[in-house]
Each structure stands twice: as C-alpha cells, then as structure tokens.
Amino acid sequence: MLKQSRFVNAADGSIRAMLGEVMWPEIGHVVVDFQPHHGTIPAMIPRHATTHLRDALADTPVVYLQGARQTGKSTLARRLAERGFASYSTLDTAAVLAAATDDPDGFIAGLSRPAVIDEAQRAPALAVAIKAAVDADRRAGRFLLTGSAMPLPRPAESLAGRMELHTLWPLSQGEIDGTPETFIDRLFAAELATPRGTENPENEVIDRICAGGYPEARARRAGRRRAAWFDAYIDAIVQRDVRELANIDRLLDMPRLLGLLASRTSQLINHADLARTIGLPRSTLKRYFALLETTFLVRRLPAWFANIGQRLAKAPKVMLVDTGLLTHLLEVDAARLRRDRTLLGHVLENFVAMEVTKQLGWCERRCRLFHFRTESGAEVDLVIEDRAGRLVGVEVKSTATLRGRDFAGLKALAEIAGDRFVRGVAVYLGTEVVSFGKALHGLPMAQVWT
Q1: What are phi and psi of 166, to 5 degrees?
Q2: Is 300 exposed, middle or buried (0-12, 13-18, 19+ CB in 10 A)?
Q3: How far apart are CA 162 and CA 370, in angstroms?
Q4: What DSSP character marks residue 214?
Q5: Is the peptide bond before 155 cis (omega within 30 degrees of 0)?
Q6: What is the pLDDT of residues 179-192, one digit of tens each?
Q7: How many C-beta neighbours within 10 Å does residue 405 have?
C-alpha cells in the first residue's frame, strides 16, 4: 500500500526516499531584494498561501499554481526542485516545450517523481499524459504545475478529481510588511477584533496603491523606470501569452481595451458601451476581455443576490489585478490621487478588493467575494459570503471621517440578508475604530492587512 505523501526536511529525506514516498520540502519564499516606499523588505519574503499549497501537495496528485507573470510562481517551483526532491522543467525553454508538445506521453514518462513543470499551460496536451500517469499511480504530490494563464477547458476536464487549483497573486500588503493577515476571519468572528497600531496615514496608503505588488516593479524607482517595466510587462503578455492562447489579428486592440477597463475600474461592466467606445464588435470585445482575465490582468467581481426574485443589479464589476499597473495605465501618480478624490475612490476600492481577494486564498474560512447593488441605488462595495451563506459587507471610503449615511448600503444589505448578515464595516482613511450601531463599524484602512 502506498504511503500518503507529506513534507519532509532534508535531514530525513534520504531515509524516507527509500520508502517510496513522494516528498516535498518546506517551501514558501520568493527571492526579491528591493526598497519599498516605507522601508527595506527582507530578501526572503514568505508567501501566505504556502501552507495551503503544501497541504494540497500532501493529499492531491496534481497541484496547479496559477497566477500572473512576475508574481513568484517560478521562484517557488525552482526553489522546491533545488532542494533535491523534485525534477524541474520549464516550458519557457524552446527545447523542453518542443519535447512536451511533440511527445507528451514520453515527456511525462521521462520525468522523475515528484515533478515540477513550469508554464505548463504552453503545452495543453500534457494534461492527458498527466492524467494517464496519475491514474496508473495515484500517490499525492506527483506533479506541481505552474502557469501564467488559467488552465484551458480541456486540461481542466481531463484532470477533474485529480488536480487542485491555487492562485498566486502579486504580493499582498501583509506579505510586504512581513505580517499575518486575518481580516476575513476577524470579520466573521463572534466579536470583531481590531488590532492596535494599524493607523496608516493617507499618504502611505496612496503610496502603497501606486507601488502595487509586483516585486520587480517595486524594485524600481517610481516614475520613468517603473513605467518602463509596466510597458514591457504588458507588451510581453500581449505579444506572447495572448498570441499563444488565441489567434488574434489585431493584438494592438488588447492594450487599448486594458486601458479602457482601467478607466472603468470598480464600475459595472457594460459590454455594449465598451464595444462602442473602443470600436469593436461586442462578441470580439467579450473574447478579448476573457483573454485579459485568463492572463490575470483583470478580474470580474460578480454581483450578489439573495434570490432570483430580488431586483438587484446582476452585472459584474471590473477590477485590475494590481493597482500599480492600474495607476500606470491611468497615467496618474500619488500626487494626482491626493488631488482627485473621485478617482482615488475608484482606485482605493480596487485596492481593497484585490487585498481581500488575495486573503481568500489562505484565510481559514472558505469564502467568495461579490459586490451588491440594488436598482434603487443602494450598494455595498464588497460582500464576503462564507460556505454557510453568512455575509459580511465592506464599504471602502476615501475620506478621513465617516458619517451615518456612509452605512446606508450596508443597512440595505442587512435588511435583505436577514439572519445571514454578520456585520458591516466601512474601511476609511481615518485613524479611529468607531461604532455606528449594531454590527456596523468604521475601521482604519490598515486593518485590512493586519
């Protein structure tokens, strides 16, 4: 009987290797070395998603780690392989890609176990070969795949029941600061815990927004050098990843659409209006939008509704995955955001939405993220729903003070949700934790990443 795989240290790896176990060492750091806006970050940055990734490798044959380019997926994979417990192959190498594409069965058969395959989405036919290998030997932790695009439909179907999917987003604020993030779990707790010492000045929050979470972009000075990195980043994704995923004649329309979506961040998606503005057929625009999602440049935030009979807006909102990239596309800097409060409101909502999205990957409570809006105009920026159907509402305010009317949307959500409503919070640019009635609280912005 095969033993279930688990993580081991190098000290006992040689002994347990003789037992035929699939072994994965402790992992979870990205090698970066840069100066953030508020101090030096250590060269080794722990990623909060590591524990769940490690757990998945301990009981699942195939784990797929997806995410945007330059978020640290390959670094995690290489460090794992370098420990001596796994082979490492990257399909970014032409010869390796040719072997995986021309003879996927032979390529998989030739790998030692466990195996890391980097940028696996470049050879979709590997999915069938991996399925055959896993069906012949169902041990956990056999394959760790990484990809800069979401798995294509065929691989996802082929590996159903055999593969677990994880997403590595750009660095979260807690990862940058080296602190754990418990915002979601605290919101659902019976009593709301509000750690002290988390009052960030408005200027620092805005600087965090503009810096974003891509390690290499953060390593560059704000201004021309960081802008050059983002330009090259977008060009590389469009010219390489999008070209490989789909046959598109007008690739230059993709950056134009991305810029248009940046200008509509945190707003409801209207495909007809977008198509008319950019001059594309609606069907083409939807296809391009899907490609931007697949390559982790944008994300849809779906609408929450209690039931079909409720008159709620069903359109999703659009968010950019990284606010550093967002401010680059908008051609705005920190000074401009401080002056333009309306623009700051949209960008700040995007910032908080993505920080919460990142935390969904490692919080103890399994949750999904939505927005809420009724046809009468009541809205809540973020709605977090756990698997039991319990709800927390989060409003994002770009002001240093709060008033009772700032909680109108949260009260409307509470009325519709009834007993399912746990609490509502408004995160804002002030410094005080304040109560606005039963289950309604105002929290300083930094409470999100402490």
Answers
A1: -130, 150
A2: middle
A3: 28
A4: -
A5: no
A6: 999 999 999 999 99
A7: 7
CB 384 within 8 A of CB 394: yes
Per-position DSSP letters for 330-392, written without gaps between them: HT--HHHHHH-HHHHHHHHHHHHHHHHHHHHTT-SS-EEEEEEEBTTS-EEEEEEEETT--EE
The span from the CA of 28 to the CA of 69, in Å, is 17
Helices (H), 212-281: 215-218, 224-236, 243-245, 253-263, 271-278
- Chain mean position to CA 1: 38
| CA quadruple 372, 376, 377, 378: dihedral sign | negative
pLDDT averaged over the chain? 85
Sign of CA dihedral 59, 64, 67, 68: positive
Q: For residue 274, what are the CA distances in angstroms to 84, 166, 281?
A: 50, 31, 10
Task: Kindly give the pairing relationship between strand 317-320 and strand 298-301.
Answer: antiparallel
Q: Which residue has the tokens 């402490």?
A: 450
Say which CATH class 6-167 falls into.
alpha beta
pLDDT, one tens digit per residue, over 406-438 is 999 999 999 999 999 999 999 999 999 999 988
Which pairs from 102-110 meet CB under 8 Å and 24+ separation? 104/128, 104/129, 105/129, 105/132, 108/132, 108/133, 109/133
CA 196 to chain centre: 27
Beta bridge partners of 383: 370, 393
- 298: β partners: 320
Compute the distance between CA of residue 117 and CA of residue 299 in angstroms, rounded to an integer: 25
Residue 373, amino acid? R
Element (H, E) at 94: helix 94-102
Q: Where are the domains of the chain?
A: 6-167, 173-449
Rg over alpha carbons for the chain, rounded to the nearest Å, is 23
Paired sense of beta strands 317-320 and 367-373, if any? unpaired
How far the first Cα of the chain sits from its last, in Å, is 44
For residue 395, what are its two tokens? 């409003």
pLDDT beyond 50 at 369: yes
Distances (CA, A) of 432 to 265, 382, 424: 28, 21, 16
